[in-house]
Design goal:
This protein has three helices and eight strands. The strands form two sheets. It has a six-stranded mixed sheet with strand order 3-2-4-5-6-7, covered by helices on one side. Strands 1-8 form a two-stranded parallel sheet. With 120 residues, the chain is α/β, with parallel strands linked by helices. Bound molecules: zinc ion. The site of zinc ion has 7 residues, from strand 4.
């Protein structure tokens, strides 16, 4: 079971709302088995998702276990570009859809398969 910290989720909801109608993008860090930290990608706020992840960001990416981004619609299905990114950048990937609540969060593995999770 994937465990997401409540604090991290609260931060994510706020960041996604602040970025709307653009995508918010971050990378995930795990602590003691709980995904509890989001590394905000510099310059990603107000941008177009993963298109903004530059090669010089790679050392940061290698330190994370996955990614998170928002969709400005209630559709949290990964795009083709999302799936390519998931395959290369860790094993856990969160998409939060509008209106950015707990129930619009979907978690995927690196193959784009939906994962069960809980928030605590
Ligand atoms: Zn996406």
């Amino acid at each position: 079971m994937i465990i997401l910290s409540k604090d991290m989720i609260e931060f994510l909801k706020m960041a996604a709302k602040n970025s709307f109608p653009n995508e918010f993008v971050g990378l995930l860090r795990e602590k003691h088995g709980i995904i509890s930290e989001i590394l905000v990608i510099p310059g990603s706020q107000g941008g177009k998702g993963f298109a903004l992840l530059q090669p010089h960001m790679v050392p940061i990416i290698s330190d994370s276990i996955g990614s998170v981004h928002s969709h400005p619609s209630n559709n949290t299905t990964p795009s083709k570009q999302d799936l390519l990114f998931f395959q290369r950048n860790g094993k856990i990937h969160i998409i939060i859809g509008y209106p950015y609540e707990d129930k619009t969060i979907t978690v995927y593995d690196n193959n784009g398969k939906k994962q069960d999770f809980l928030i605590r």
